Amino acid sequence: MSSKASIQKAVLACAALAVLASCGNESSDQGDSPFVIAAKTASGAIASRRASADNAPAKPPKTPAEMAAEALRVNPNPLIMAGFESLGRSQVMAMTDRNGGMRTYMTPSEEALIMRDGMLVGTRGLGNDLSVAEPATAALIRAGRSGSAPRVMRYFSGDGLERPLSFDCDVGPGPKAGVIVENCRGHGVSFQNSFMVQGGQIPVSRQWIGPSLGYVTIQTLRP
Amino acid sequence: MRGSRLTSRLMATTLPVAFLVGSVTGTAIAEPMQARNMTTFGMPGGIDTPTAEALPDGTLGATLSYSEYARRHNVVFQAMPRLTAVLRYSRVEGIEDRRNNNDHLWDRSFDLRIQLLDEAGWRPAVAVGLQDFVGTGIYSGEYIVATKNITPTVRASAGIGWGRIAGETRWPLERGDQGGKPNVDDWFTGSAKPFGSITWQVNDRLSLAAEYSSDNYKNEVEGVGGDEPGNLNLAAYYRFGQGYEVGLYTLGGETFGAQFSFSLNPRKAPYPSGLEKAPAPVRPRPAPAADPEGWSGQWAQDPTAQPAIQQALSDALAKEGQLLESMALSGNRAEVRIRNQRYIQQAEAVGRTARLMTRALPPSVETLVITSSADGIPTSSVTLRRSDVERLENTEASKVASAAALTDARPYPGDLVTTDGMFPRFRWHIGPYLDLGLFDPGEPLRYEVGAEARATYEIMPGLILAGTLRQRAFGSMDQRGPSKGRDPDNPNKPREHYPPEEYEARPELETLNGVPRVRSDTRMYRSDGPTIPELTVAWYARPTDTVYTRVTAGLLERAYGGVSAEALWKPVNSPLAFGAEINRVRKRDFDDVFGFRDYEVTTGHVSAYYEFAQGYTAQLDVGQYLAGDRGATITLTREFANGWRIGAFATKTDLSEDEFGEGSFDKGISISIPISWATGQPSRQRASSTLRALSRDGGSRVNVNGRLYDKVRDSHSVKLYEGWGRFWR
Q1: β-sheet bridge partners, residue A204
Q2: How far apart are CA B1 and CA B15, in angstroms?
Q3: Which of A120, B417, B525, B548 is most buried as measured by Cβ atoms within 10 A of its Cβ?
Q4: b/e map B13-36, b = 16+ CB within 10 Å
Q5: Alpha-carbon distance values, A220 to A70, A83, A88, A92, B540 (Å)
Q6: What ipTM describes this predicted complex?
Q7: Which B positions 654-693 lie with beta carbon below 8 A of chain A?
Q8: Does residue A49 register a pLDDT over 50?
Q9: Distance between first and last Cα of chain A
Q10: Is the C-alpha dihedral spanning B508, B511, B513, B514 positive or negative?
């Protein structure tokens, strides 16, 4: 009956707090009133802002090189370093699984990049994710050949549907030796992906995720 | 066949990238002309006068406008690409409200506008509109208007108006008219007068407007005093942030006003894909040579295999907000029953469960069956081949949809084994609550704040005890009897309310014009002591593949207790459903939480539900309502794949307009916005509200929790496929 006693204790403690906060063992989807949710969201936002303000001076961020060195030491899996230009941060991501040529890399906070033979084909957990990319240019890029091919990229629109955007892309050698560039246009935007190709592998690349997230630079730390 | 339906549902039109970026260059082709600013009546337009513009499809917005003559609270909804609707609650100054002893009038009104023609070449966009067409008539008027872009930044509109728009008033209503119904006889009658406006978009933020209006605010000026405003109005609007706008305007230079607008577009979520953690990826099976034992299926003979696998899968699913209620496992097939507690789209729950199954199950299991459970009743099964899940991971979502089979779930448990420790299941919650009351003419916004404790005890899947206890702390919703109504000898005397003691002491007051008071004395239930809004036992079941049932008994809601029984026929792949409900209820005592009053009634409905394409749904209920009146309710709702839901309903029963009273018949709108849309965090929580024109006694139903249709539909074909884009999410 200790569980009953502990529930009783929790209920009593809760009752005292009830005016200010809420508690219980219901999962969050069981429904607070909208006003409580709004208050929680607001206080959460304030708290996170405060937390980041508090943390910022106390803990200087590690440089990408330090992060890479540490990850290589503690994590035996394949690793990449991803630099998100619009988010202004670089992260080491470790491979969690592979399915054929597709690899899923994740951060400890469970954001993910999905790569297929060096081409970025999806992101998860970033808020404006690339649902799936179908780059018909992949073969040209890995072979280092020039040519044109389409590229379809699918996103979640705000109304909750997965919608395709298709682009026309030209592949060719870039200004630097060993770098292949892919220039794509469509829907009123254009973007340029760059790939360093070595023996059919792509150790370093800069690829466009989508209109909101912009470019990510991906560097292989351990293949 | 299913393929083509899927295609239409999943392969939505290709969007200009601007839509995803959220830029404002709204020049999409074949869309009605898009609004620049909002009028004081909450419609796209000039200042007071309308234009032929529309808002982006699905936009929900609000405009608060304030001047010497009126304070208007407008809610606007672009219900369809060419249909704009406004619900307005206005404080009209200078008009005496004798019933409520006010020198101003609180008035509800409703507008519709239809965009008939788009701008093309020399042809302007054309719209026709009805203003205040079911209200008391204070703003009643009609118009036809044309709008044309003169230059990219200058837009001109001209039109003809009737009624209020031509400066003629149709107020007050004739004696005995209860208002609230379409005043068709008045439409487009009286003299027609012109109006027009010019707007200039100075830059991205600032726009200026000038208009010629024939509305001279005759009634208001008589009451407020001063001169009638001229016909020329001027305004400046400034836009900022995500969809906010402030405006300053003058009506004829005589009167100045200010307004504030904001709009939400369901298509413009802050985090369109959501911020939920990335799913665990598929784990492909090892080659048969690498795991001959796993591939042989021999492991299935081991009695310890299933409990261990089930526990591991249950733990993994729990991290995804999914309850593994039960599981069946054989050498080549696994079925799981999951209760989705996190994702607004069932497809996302199914997709994540499928991936976790590839990580937990031995390689010989090829058939994966994922059965969705709605609080204990199985509602649908998605059957997938494991090799398809492996092959199609992270591809276009429609591919795996074509490879999956959606069927009615088996109603009986069969070989399913309940997960250890799942039932009985006790949940509780203590927290604050806030109740709002709107549209009371004496005090338009009333509230009550207090503490609430809620608990549910699920004895076995489908059998649930639920209770809520509330204690009010403070607020402005005191216990009060219903309104005394108009004194027939002295109609101008202000309206009063019965004191609670008098109302309880005189049972004859509980009927009005022969109609029992079933809702109009709701305020009697606002007592200072603890209240029990709900204390029920509910039993959900599924007697056949396509029929669901519910029996609920106890204190169903604050005002009624009794028994409610319901049955629903809804095959998983059918857009059509039928339901029947019967309730025997008794009115609860106002103060004694377990006591009852004398009024007892049987209510019941037969219902038909239909899910149209593009997220439109319709519901028709025919039957007997709480006051013993008989009639029908029609509900039309628009739903988006992200969970937004906006609907309107109307009920007409055999009560005459006089018996029903003000408003003539019951009607209202409901809005429900998922919290996840605003925060990006995955959650099934919603912010919902139903606004009724008036709370009257006709056309009222018992508010019993857990009605079946919405419970089972999330995992049925229309909604499941609508959200299927989130399968690999």
Answers
A1: A196, A219
A2: 26
A3: B548
A4: eebbbbbbeeeeeeeeeeebbebb
A5: 15, 12, 19, 10, 54
A6: 0.85
A7: 675, 677-680, 683-689
A8: no
A9: 55
A10: negative
With vertex at residue B178, the alpha carbon angle to CA B176 and CA B179, rounded to the nearest 5 degrees, is 130
> What does the pLDDT look like over A166-193, one tens digit per residue?
999 999 999 988 899 999 999 889 999 9
Nearest to A29 among B271, B683, B723 (CB): B683
Q: Report how far residue B627's alpha carbon sits from residue B511's, in angstroms, rounded to the nearest whole number.
A: 10
B646: distance to nearest CA of chain A, Å? 14
The set of residues, in sequence order, having a beta carbon less than 8 Å from that of B522 and lying 6+ positions away, is: B558, B559, B695
Residue showing tokens 């992949």? A138
By Cβ distance, the residue of A37, A41, A99 closest to B390 is A99
Give the mean pLDDT of A119-130.
Answer: 95
- Give all domains of chain B, ordered by start, each with its CATH number: 31-264 (2.40.160.40), 288-423 (3.30.300), 425-460+462-720 (no CATH)
Res B15: pLDDT: 43
Scanning B289-348 for CB atoms below 8 A from A yields: 321, 341-342, 345
Q: Which of B111, B90, B67 is nearest to B235 (CA)?
A: B67
Closest chain A residue to B59, measured at CA: A159
Search chain A and give the residue with CA nearest B375: A30
Residue B77: name the closest of B672, B480, B578 by CA. B672
SS3 for B7? Answer: helix
Find the helix packing angle between B305-319 and B346-360, rounded to 10°. Answer: 140
Phi, psi of B353 (to 5 degrees): -65, -40
pLDDT on residue A161: 86
- Residues in chain B where the model's pLDDT stays below 70: 1-30, 98-100, 175-176, 440-442, 485-495, 693-694
pLDDT of residue A213: 93
DSSP class of residue B249? E
> Rounded to whole angstroms, how far apart are CA atoms B216 and B164?
9
Structure confidence at residue B10 (pLDDT): 40
Confidence of residue A21 (pLDDT cuts 50, 70, 90): low
Closest CA to B55 of B105, B115, B96, B104: B115
As given in the structure block, the two tokens for residue A214 are 């912009």
Residue A154: list chain B partners with CB under 8 A. Answer: 396
Q: Is B28 on the interface with A (CB under 8 A)?
A: no
C-beta atoms surrounding A2 within 10 Å:
6
Place of tokens 């709108």: B669
Before B172, cis peptide (omega within 30)?
A: yes
Nearest to B434 among A35, A129, A161 (CB): A35
Tokens of B349: 């729950």
The whole-angstrom distance between B369's CA and the closest CA on chain A is 22
Nearest CB to A158 within list B11, B272, B390:
B272
Q: Mutating which of B355, B394, B452 best tests the A interface, going by the most A Cβ atoms within 10 A?
A: B394
Token reading at B375:
């609080």
Decide if A166 and B278 are in contact by the 8 Å CB cutoff. Answer: no
| Residue among B243, B237, B241 nearest B210 (CA) | B237
Distance, CA of B343 to CA of B726 (rounded, Å):
10
pLDDT, chain A, mean: 82
CA nearest B183: which of B114, B129, B132?
Answer: B132
d(CA B641, CA B723): 6
Interface contact flag, A102 B433, Cβ < 8 Å: no
Residue A1 has pLDDT above 90, yes or no: no
Q: Which member of B641, B685, B729 has the closest CB to residue A37?
A: B685
Set of chain A residues whose Cβ sits within 8 Å of the Cβ of B58: 159
What 3 state SS string does B480-528 have?
CCCECCCCCCCCCCCCCECCHHHHHHCHHHHEECCEECCCCCHHHHCCC
Domains of chain A: 2-58 (no CATH), 64-222 (2.40.360.10)
